[in-house]
């Protein structure tokens, strides 16, 4: 799509060379055929170094754009991005495409749907009611229990087990807001990548990335009713217990343990081998190798001490 | 159904005129062809003004009934209501009915079921495994992802997006209790109404009303794994983040934001533009326009102050 | 399977008589044709009294085995159990078997799958997209809403209602851990038993037992989005509100009430008629007949007192 066409459609000023744009990306990842945006000034450095073909920016920031990067001028770049994102959204279901390719020795039950251009490895089992969207890959020996939904473009590794009712690749929760209080969808054009040897419990929801990929790395085991927001990266051999959740863009190190009903605030990092006890609420990045509890989160031994203090307070009945 | 037949079936005394009853309703909503009940004395005023055809009440309250309103006498009106509710429950699946009506330019995938008497608008996409119960309406341009279930009698607006695995119209959690500790189902004869431009994430559960409607108003965006109890009314442009929940009969004002894993106790009102932070637990009605946190809920700045005090207490190691 | 074959396959020392082993079981339940294990020394008494055919144990504990009980020697018995458990896992879907038996007057909708050897009672309704695995029994008059998945070997009683999207019999979250931080699946070879008159809400996940059964007893009513871990035993007439969860091996007494988003830590007992308020976090066994709140859990009246103290502290702004 030509930048000039986008500019025209949304009545935006185009500064710089007209270009062919193929997709959207974050500033630090964008390539010359991609369009990016800057809303939050904490990403000014990424703006100065971006390799995007064009960026949606406020007029006052034009001078910071690297040479050769075009601009679409907007006073509300995030909202403008939201409107533009729809242009790059893929159809949920195409009308035509290449028949899916099924490996050797697979068990494909009745009432299974597999979308165009998908590739299923060897020895894969897809139980009744499984829906595999188009352009999905599923690795060898993976077992998918009934009524699982895998959205288009997602990649599932080898030797994975996905329990019934789980949803992989649903849209991340991303909206820009108008001044009059409406919420405009940012189409979620990324995907989910599940690496090898991952097990995911029943009725989980793992959202696709807005751009790029939500990633669950090799050997991670996820219990039931767990939410993983868009653009999370979950390290190798992580354990997540039932009803826990990761808000968008949480980065979880390897061998982290996350207790039941624990959650994260998103846009933060959890270091390798950290343990978050049940109900822990992670509100900022934390180093690995320690045990944490509580909300707001603290080291577990501090939390125990606090509970002991409160128990004493309660016993005395007075402060 | 005749009041006298109901009275006979459950061995109840009928006081006043025998009438034809078509359905059940709350005191304040009931019409002359409806049966209502009074269990909790805080609704005595509603009893005095009811336009119900008949009311299930304790004998001692008979004198408060408006003229012309009949009564079924019960020492346990709520329990009696539960038993009677079964008489008015509709079949989950009828054996016959009018073929569903599908609009122009729809994409109805394989393995989709649509019940009798349902009406699907134009440009609607129903992906594989979607189950639309009978007497459902779905508005133009709405997109329903795989394995979604919409129970009978529900109404979905235009331009909605419903993600995979979500359930709309499941029974509210309503039971009356016998003296020996059994729980008797109150059949949930209402429905769910989703207005236009609503997006609902994956694996949510939105319960139908016991009588009347659970309503999600225009422009509201709901994340994954969210529960909305029976008879909730969620205002326009509300945001609900992942794993949050509304207990039954919660009234949420417009443009309210509800954080991840936050919840409400039910039978309360949240004012317009209120913000409930993640994990907030709303236990009573709150005015709009403020930010709240914690459980029990308080204003967010109070919560921050409390956390600072506790941190100081912990540091000192003594109260 | 011969003990000697298992020993050979995993390079383990077999002490005592070679035997035919049919399945795995916990020490206190194991029979002479079953293999058990001891990892945690708090079960030494169970070891001394076990009737298992053989036990996986550390060498140093050999002398504690009852006469005639064989041993497989391992320095990591739980990890060894995990590897062995795969040998006893049943196929998720068999290639052949006895056609399912359907009772009189059932309504089996389109797109329903029923596995081999399953037995469906009279007057059962299975709505579209329901998947019943093999060797399942469903009692008379039970109603299963769309897109429910019931895994193999589970038993559902009479007069039950199971709402859409719920999963019964998914694998419990059980892993043994290698020294280098990988997680080895313990195949969950047990099942789920749902007794009569149970209602389960939408999008719940009830895990099968590792050995034996997860049991939901008669008359219990479960709301939406609830997790019940492996080997839980939920008593009669229990109420569990939305988004609550039970970790593995929780024993819940009869007529217990569990509030919304409440949870348990597992391997504990809740006494009859206990009430856990919303968000309560049960971390150890508690006697019945009382009302509890908070996390860590305390008696509700204590929790109210603590909140009052904290409110006073906050008001004073100083400790």
TrEMBL record, chains A, B, C:
Active site: 230 (proton acceptor)
Biological processes per GO annotation: lipid A biosynthetic process
The EC number(s) this enzyme carries: 2.3.1.191
Reactions catalysed: a UDP-3-O-[(3R)-3-hydroxyacyl]-alpha-D-glucosamine + a (3R)-hydroxyacyl-[ACP] = a UDP-2-N,3-O-bis[(3R)-3-hydroxyacyl]-alpha-D-glucosamine + holo-[ACP] + H(+)
Pfam families from the UniProt entry: Hexapep, Hexapep_2, LpxD
Enzyme class: transferase
Domain of life where this protein originates: Bacteria
SUPFAM superfamilies: Trimeric LpxA-like enzymes
Domain UDP-3-O-[3-hydroxymyristoyl] glucosamine N-acyltransferase non-repeat region: start-end pairs: 19-87
Pathway the protein contributes to: Bacterial outer membrane biogenesis; LPS lipid A biosynthesis
UniProt entry keywords in alphabetical sequence: Acyltransferase, Lipid A biosynthesis, Lipid biosynthesis, Lipid metabolism, Repeat, Transferase
Entry's Gene Ontology molecular function annotations: N-acyltransferase activity; UDP-3-O-[(3R)-3-hydroxyacyl]-glucosamine N-acyltransferase activity
Entry GO terms, CC: membrane
Role, per record: Catalyzes the N-acylation of UDP-3-O-acylglucosamine using 3-hydroxyacyl-ACP as the acyl donor. Is involved in the biosynthesis of lipid A, a phosphorylated glycolipid that anchors the lipopolysaccharide to the outer membrane of the cell.
Complexes and interactors: Homotrimer.
Family: Belongs to the transferase hexapeptide repeat family. LpxD subfamily.
Protein name in the entry: UDP-3-O-acylglucosamine N-acyltransferase
Annotated organism of origin: Nitratiruptor tergarcus DSM 16512
Lineage of the organism: Bacteria, Pseudomonadati, Campylobacterota, Epsilonproteobacteria, Nautiliales
């Amino acid at each position: 799509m030509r930048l000039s066409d986008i500019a025209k459609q949304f009545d935006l000023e185009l500064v710089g060379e007209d270009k062919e744009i193929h997709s959207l990306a974050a500033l630090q990842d964008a390539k010359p055929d991609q369009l990016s945006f800057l809303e939050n000034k904490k990403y000014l450095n990424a703006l100065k170094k971006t390799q995007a073909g064009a960026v949606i920016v406020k007029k006052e920031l034009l001078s910071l754009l690297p040479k050769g990067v075009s601009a679409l001028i907007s006073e509300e770049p995030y909202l403008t991005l939201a409107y533009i994102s729809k242009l790059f959204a893929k159809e949920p279901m195409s009308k035509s495409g290449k028949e899916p390719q099924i490996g050797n020795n697979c068990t494909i039950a009745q009432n299974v749907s597999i979308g165009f251009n998908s590739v299923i490895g060897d020895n894969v089992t897809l139980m009744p009611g499984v829906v595999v969207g188009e352009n999905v890959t599923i690795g060898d020996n993976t077992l998918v229990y009934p009524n699982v939904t895998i959205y288009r473009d997602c990649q599932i590794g080898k030797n994975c087990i996905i329990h019934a009712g789980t949803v992989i690749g649903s849209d991340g929760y991303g909206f820009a807001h108008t001044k009059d209080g409406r919420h405009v969808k940012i189409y979620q054009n990324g995907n989910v990548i599940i690496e090898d040897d991952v097990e995911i419990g029943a009725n989980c929801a793992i959202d696709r990335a807005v751009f790029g990929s939500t990633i669950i790395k090799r050997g991670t085991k996820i219990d039931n009713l767990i939410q993983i927001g868009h653009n999370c990266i979950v390290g190798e051999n992580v354990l997540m217990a039932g009803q826990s959740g990761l808000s968008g863009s949480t980065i979880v190190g390897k061998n982290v343990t996350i207790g039941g009903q624990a959650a994260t605030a998103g846009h933060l990092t959890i270091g390798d081998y950290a343990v978050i006890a049940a109900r822990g609420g992670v509100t900022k990045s934390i180093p690995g190798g320690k045990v944490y509890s509580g909300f707001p989160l603290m080291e577990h031994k501090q939390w125990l001490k606090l509970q002991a203090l409160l128990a004493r307070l309660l016993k005395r009945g007075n402060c």
